[in-house]
Design a protein that fits this description.
By secondary structure, this protein is of the alpha/beta class. The chain contains 8 helices and 14 strands.
Length: 352
Amino acid sequence: MSKEYNVAILGATGAVGRRMIDQLAKSTIPIKSVKLLASSRSAGTHLKFRDQDLVVEETTPDSFNGIDLVLSSAGGSVSKKFLPEVVKRGAVCVDNTSAFRMDEDVPLVVPEVNPEALKNHHGIIANPNCSTIQMVMALEPVRRKFGLKQIIVSTYQAASGAGQAAIDELKKESQDYLDGKDMHEDAKILPTKGDKKHYPLAFNLLPQIDVLEDSGYSHEEWKMIHETKKIMLNDMNSKDIKVTATCVRVPVPIAHGESVYFTVEDESATAEDIMDVIADFPGDVLQDDIKNQIYPQPINAEGSRDTFVGRIRPDYENKGAFNMWVVSDNLLKGAAWNTVENAEYLVKMGLI
């Protein structure tokens, strides 16, 4: 008889946490029990797991006694506080925050791309940034077949990347705009909650995600650069692939878009070759039929675990260079599903 696991979901009441509950319910993990954890403010909330009605509990260190697996998406400070307690009690955690992503001892894993990294875990596995996940999903089959020299990405990131409150803010601002009211009064979260100024997202574009650093890059852009290298090359500072990013928040509720320009080592590769390897890669869906205007769109990607890739075309000015358009549900493959999928791989590989 296969082992059954006691699972805890930390941050269960958030936008990602609720989707983790759903994705866990649909997963292949043999489950003995599920515990839902959140802050004292959310404790007492009732949520469904399969046919069970579960009460959300306030998180304490003792919450993890007897737990085998923790799926976490409660914010970086919460992860830093509680995940060492998880490990101390013998459980394994897949964490969806940025708290441990750049820690050398913590694997940063997209299961289709670098599952072997899971073997090196010491109790914590980090989920990459949502934008990084969908980009490496699209580019990994290309890297394996043709090599990669350079990546230039511009993101079109949905409001949900900043949480449910940002979606609610976008909706309120949109209604205000349509009613002829001032939207600025509702802008309390974006571009980033902890910064000095806030701007409306409705009918607008915000070229800032996370804080702006002295380098001129936002922290989101920094994450995409270094996470990509850590995932693909196991070295966040590697020079073997050059990566740069511009990250923009757009007035879309759910699902990020990315314009990705990349250069391959094998200059004999054609756009058709690129399409073929992407179409064959697990978790990727090729949507590239320009004659019939078929290409990825956020409105169609919402609710799917897949990464959608299209508009693949060569740069006719530079040999070996191509453009593509990538879309994925940032709350599923970009967060909840990638977290649960990592846990599935831990079980299948006998690492938990």
